[in-house]
Write a structure and sequence with these properties.
Largest sheet of chain A: 7 strands, mixed
CATH architecture of the largest domain in chain A: 2-Layer Sandwich
Structural class of chain B: alpha+beta
Helix content of chain A: 25-40%
CATH architecture of the largest domain in chain B: 2-Layer Sandwich
Number of strands of chain B: 14
Number of domains of chain B: 3
Oligomer: heterodimer
Bound molecules: flavin-adenine dinucleotide
Strand content of chain B: 25-35%
Radius of gyration of chain A: 27 Å
Strand content of chain A: 15-25%
Shape of chain B: globular
Distance between the termini of chain B: 47 Å
Structural class of chain A: alpha+beta
Chain lengths: 790, 276
């Protein structure tokens, strides 16, 4: 379409940053509606408690209080649904207890909502909380998934035996894996915890429900990653309101990392209550509530074994995981430890036998769902920890071990995709390439020398590797449907050319900070040969955008971008018809290059704006062609996309205190074609920081009462700029063979690859000093490392 | 994260502040960086805040005879970047710089930190090690309290309800040398262990710890082990051995009692090494 690209591949500055950096972004909490009132929740202080009595009379008499709803008031309303059905091995459907909007009888985790107070002001609502008296009978609780399945453990739901939501298995038969392991000359075994993380989006969740009596229509403003999906779930599954009577708006959203994908009880509640009381209601989460209640991430208890032959070839992998789901099922909680985790256990290796067995477990904790990476970081952690540890145990080089086991390069066009043992078919890859590049940047040989020398000076240096793959660009609807998804995973892109040739693009991909307004505009401008300033990207309003599945699973460009490209193709095709008519040429002779429709081999042409104007002022116009230039397309991907890369961490450990200092971090990522290198690099930086956060700093700690003992920024440590060296990033490009842009997705890669690299580096440092430690529990706090050394 | 309602009074003098304190459930507000967080969590719900943050008489640093006087409402940042402090009392510059992050340092005050008496506050160890005196003013007039007699326990001091800290007096001991070594909690950056050491010209060594017990304290056993001796590897080792023995040591999810104790000894060594 265009011979020269002037935007694609360039680090164009982000157009949205002007409003974000100057504080002009408009978030849900910035919206003030006429007559709006405010909500606040009475929440359970206990992890597991019977509600014996609840008395709201005093609170109701408090100044400003308009209404108070309790569990009894919403008992007839459905709970919020789970969007993915995972079956037991025996075919039974998973256990899916109701997740009510307000709890009436028994609270199941700290923070479970017991009453919703609506008052004229937020402060008055908050003051009234203390006046609601709830008589609880505190019961014992369980927070660890491996403990929760044991006989006699406290039950979260009385009708879910052993707290097991499902058990699930993927890969080769257990017997085959057992046999392969029994023949191995070396088996590495690793028992570990992939700890629970708090997503910590900068903007806390915020919702406004509003009901208009005259049109019988609701509007929900919500801090979400997918407004249409929220509308679908809330209307069809929870409130039973017809979808055309609900508008869902997701304005600017200040980060999500997955936690704003899900349909939360508070969204349905403000919507429903707005009709009950006849006024718009806003609820904005407090930071303390965010810690407690934004769906958490990870929380796996895992045992993994990897067997090798005498030459270091991997023979088999066996994984057993207890995945904590929390007390209730969040929207995608069930697919994360299964189809987004088990399916990635091939990694980059030719492992012939793999079996993964996952038990999904209810505990008295907040829900766990997809958090940046979602399942793939857990899978990568298993593989990459095993690879480095095996190398140490077998006394071979960790990089040689990888080269020996890598899947050979394939482009997915001349060579077919790679069929794994765990259901996926990789699209294209060159795994040797990223590791080679990483080693070059590291100057590996020199590093090992340096490591030996610094050991003499009392320093403890270590290097850790992680060569990861992930599956994103989620996902072919038919495939995910067959695996239990209760929704399709296509995307919608509408391109509306205005009569003057300016372009409005409506996308179902919702930006919560990723820079869609820039990246998508770069694509559209190049494909249409017009300046970026002529393109406007519109998203986030279910009344404006036809439909959408939203943003998660690093899918926006690969799926949402492809839908836009499809619409652009339709525009160009129609433009050619119009041009042919006006230029009195045959349609086949028209080519569209650099924004001009030209008769091939001549200088006779019409530019894009002239064609646009003709489409809307169709005086000289093909007889059988509709006026207008506006197309909408649905794009359903043919496969997942499979970015991969090599992350290398170098650490130094303070021998006296155990404190780990990250000295270098090298990230070589292959995310397919790159539209905006700066944005991709930014995503990698952020992801790496989060991944390092998991390795060294972050992690929810529950006490025996099910209380989070580090539920604030004074205790829960988020990574900060001064925790990092300058990142050394590089890229390799292996285009995706099955989408029109050849892109793979970059949103989660950094977070997926980095965590095991950092932990491996610490373990390497300890082994280099003779301490043959297999594992240190994440986060690797100074005390834990110190204990491992002493 | 929303406090109960309260009234706010900005006062023009210390006398006015003391008067305001005597009426009802009022509390002094200085930098607000300890008080406001507790109010947001509703752990503290004073009905009135008396703001002394802008009182000129409580701000600033001056040299007077053989001491340096730091106004109670002087911020951590002002102390850390002050020329007199940097040249004559570098221990205080080091201390100020080690607190939280720059936002905290720009708002928080030395008086507020001392009055709040967080078990992990940095100033506490530093005023103890430097033999400082805390000047307070109340309904009954002014008095001076030795730092060693100021801290009573967790969030507890010798201050009376109607008393305000007005200044910190630090003796300028010729030939002395101080150092502060801190292992911060990575989230809050409060001290897990903070060790302040002041070596006097006569060989006396003052050693104070914060973060490891209910309140900051002088470690007499460690002081005894090294005072009057040459500071070298072996005396450092024996001071470290003697340190924090018999002390009731805090423990939390981040640092156990055993680890804190170990860190105290390590950080004492580091502080001593810096003044050796
Ligand atoms: C994120 C964060 C990190 C921090 N990190 C550290 C750290 O690393 N090290 C550290 O030491 N501290 C740290 N702090 C605490 C900080 O230093 C506070 O500023 C200080 O503890 C209190 O000083 P303030 O001026 O803010 O006092 P306020 O919060 O205004 O007051 C604290 C208490 O002291 C009383 N008060 C205040 N001034 C006086 C006075 N002149 N006379 C009598 N009573 C008074 C108040 O009534 C109140 O009870 C941190 C705080 C935060 C928020």
């Amino acid at each position: 379409m265009s011979a020269t690209t002037s935007y694609i591949g360039k680090s164009v500055k982000r157009v949205e940053d002007k409003r974000f950096i100057t504080g002009k972004g408009k978030y849900t909490d910035d919206i003030i509606l006429a007559g709006m009132v405010h909500g606040a929740f009475v929440r359970s202080p206990h992890a597991n408690a019977k509600i014996k009595k609840i008395d709201i009379s005093k609170a109701k008499a408090m100044p400003g209080v308009i209404a108070i709803f309790t569990g009894a008031d919403v008992a007839a309303i459905n709970g919020v649904p789970c969007g993915w059905q995972v079956n037991f091995k025996n075919g039974d459907t998973m256990k899916e207890p109701k997740h009510p909007l307000l709890v009436a009888d028994r609270t199941k985790h700290v923070g479970d909502p017991v009453a919703f107070i609506i008052a004229e002001s937020r402060e008055e609502a908050k003051d009234a909380i203390e006046m609601v008296s709830v008589d609880y009978e505190k019961l014992s609780c369980v927070t660890n998934p491996a403990e929760a399945v044991k006989p006699g453990a406290p039950l979260v739901h009385d009708d879910v035996p052993n707290n097991i939501c499902f058990d699930w298995e993927l890969g080769n038969p257990k017997s085959e894996v057992e046999e392969a392991l029994s023949k191995a000359s070396h088996v590495t075994t690793l028992d570990f915890v992939n700890q629970r993380l708090v997503p910590n989006a900068m903007e806390p969740r915020s919702y406004i429900g509003s009901y208009d009596e005259t049109s019988d229509k609701y509007t929900l403003y919500t801090s979400t990653q997918n407004p249409h999906l929220i509308r679908l779930l809330m209307c069809a599954f929870v409130l039973g309101i017809p979808e055309h009577k609900v508008r869902v708006v997701g304005p600017d959203v200040g980060g999500g990392f997955g936690s704003k994908i899900y349909h939360y009880t508070e969204e349905a509640l403000v919507t429903w209550c707005s009709k009950e009381i006849g006024r718009p209601i806003k609820w904005t989460s407090e930071r303390a509530e965010s810690f407690l209640l934004d769906a958490h991430g990870r929380d796996h208890v895992t045992k993994a074994e990897m067997g090798f032959d005498k030459d270091g070839k991997i023979l088999a992998l066996r994984v057993k995981t207890f995945a904590n789901l929390g007390a209730y099922l969040s929207t995608f909680s069930t697919c994360v430890p299964t189809y987004l985790h088990g399916t990635l256990l091939q990694g980059l290796y030719t492992t012939p036998k793999i079996n993964v067995d996952v038990t999904g477990v209810f505990t008295h904790t907040n829900a766990v769902d997809a958090y940046r990476g979602a399942g793939r970081p857990e899978a990568t952690y298993i593989l990459e920890r095993l690879l480095d540890l095996s190398a140490l145990e077998m006394n071979v080089d960790p990089t040689e071990l990888r080269f020996k086991n890598f899947i050979p390069p394939f482009d997915g066009v001349k060579q077919p995709g790679y069929q794994t043992q765990v259901a996926l078919q990789y699209d294209s890859g060159n795994y040797h390439g990223v590791l080679e590049k990483g080693l070059e940047i590291l100057d590996y040989k020199n590093f090992r020398k340096q490591q030996k020398e610094s050991a003499k000076n009392g320093k403890l240096l270590g290097v850790g590797f992680s060569t990861y793959i992930e599956a994103c660009g989620i996902a072919p609807s038919a495939v995910v449907g067959s695996l239990g998804a209760r929704a399709g995973l296509y995307e919608v892109g509408q391109v509306r050319v205005q009569p003057t040739g300016k372009v409005s693009v409506f996308t179902g991909s919702h930006s919560h900070g990723q820079g869609h307004e820039t990246t998508f505009a770069q694509v559209v401008a190049d494909k249409l040969g017009i300046p970026m300033e002529d393109v406007d990207i519109i998203h986030g309003d279910s009344d404006t955008v036809a439909f959408g599945m939203g943003t998660y699973g690093s899918r926006s460009l690969a799926v949402g971008g492809s839908a836009i490209v499809k619409s652009i193709e339709k525009i160009v095709e129609k433009g050619k018809k119009i041009a042919a008519h006006k230029l009195e040429a045959s349609e086949q002779d028209i080519e569209f290059v650099d924004g001009k429709f030209t008769i091939k081999g001549t200088s006779k042409s019409l530019n894009f704006a002239e064609i646009a104007l003709t489409a809307y002022v169709p005086h000289v116009y093909p007889a059988d062609l509709e006026p207008g230039l506006d197309f909408s397309s649905f794009y359903d991907p043919k496969n997942f996309t499979y970015p991969f890369g090599c992350h290398i961490a170098v650490v130094e450990i303070d021998r006296e205190t155990g404190k780990v200092d990250l000295k270098r971090f090298i990230a070589v990522d292959d995310v397919g074609n790159v539209i905006n290198p700066m944005i991709v690099e930014g995503q990698i930086h952020g992801g790496v920081a989060q991944g390092m956060g998991q390795a060294l700093l972050e992690g929810v700690e529950y006490d025996e009462d099910g209380q989070i003992s580090n539920g604030s920024y004074m205790d829960y440590c988020m990574p900060r700029a001064d925790d990092f060296p300058m990142f050394e990033t590089a890229s390799q490009v292996t285009p995706c063979p099955h989408n029109p842009l050849g892109v793979k997705g970059a949103g989660e890669a950094g977070c997926i690859g980095s965590t095991p690299a950092v932990v491996n580096a610490v373990i390497d440092a300890l082994w280099s000093s003779g301490k043959k430690v297999k594992d240190i529990r994440m986060p690797l706090t100074p005390e834990r490392v110190w204990k491992a050394m002493n | 994260m929303i406090p109960s309602s309260f009234s706010y009074q900005k006062v023009n003098s210390v006398a006015e502040a003391i008067k305001a304190l005597s009426s009802g459930e009022a509390k002094i507000l200085a930098g607000g960086h300890s008080l406001i967080p507790t109010m947001k969590l509703r752990l503290n719900s004073p009905s009135k805040l008396v703001d002394i943050g802008a009182l000129a008489e409580l701000r600033g640093i001056k040299e007077s005879g053989a001491e340096i006087i730091i106004g109670a409402a002087t911020t951590h940042q002002e102390i850390a970047t002050n020329k007199i402090i940097q040249s004559k009392l570098p221990l205080f510059a080091q201390g100020g710089n080690s607190i939280g992050d720059v936002q905290v340092r720009n708002k928080g005050t030395i008086g507020g930190s001392l009055a709040h008496a967080d078990p992990a506050a940095d100033w506490a160890a530093i005023v103890l090690a430097s033999d400082a005196t805390i000047e307070v003013q109340g309904g009954k007039g002014t008095r001076k309290i030795k730092a060693t007699g100021f801290f009573n326990g967790m969030f507890s001091t010798a201050l009376q309800d109607d008393e305000i800290i007005t200044a910190v007096h630090v003796p300028l001991a010729v030939g002395s040398k101080g150092s502060y070594a801190k292992f911060p909690q990575p989230a809050s950056r409060f001290a897990i262990v903070g060790c302040a050491v002041m070596k006097m010209a006569d060989g006396k060594v003052n050693i104070a710890f914060t973060g490891i017990s209910n309140c900051a304290f002088r470690d007499q056993a460690a002081e005894k082990a090294i005072s009057g001796k040459k500071i070298d590897a072996s005396t450092i080792e024996s001071a470290s051995k003697a340190a924090v023995e018999g002390v009731n040591i805090l423990s939390d999810h981040y640092a156990s009692e055993k680890y804190r104790k170990h860190l105290a000894k390590v950080y004492l060594k580091r502080a001593l090494l810096a003044v050796s």
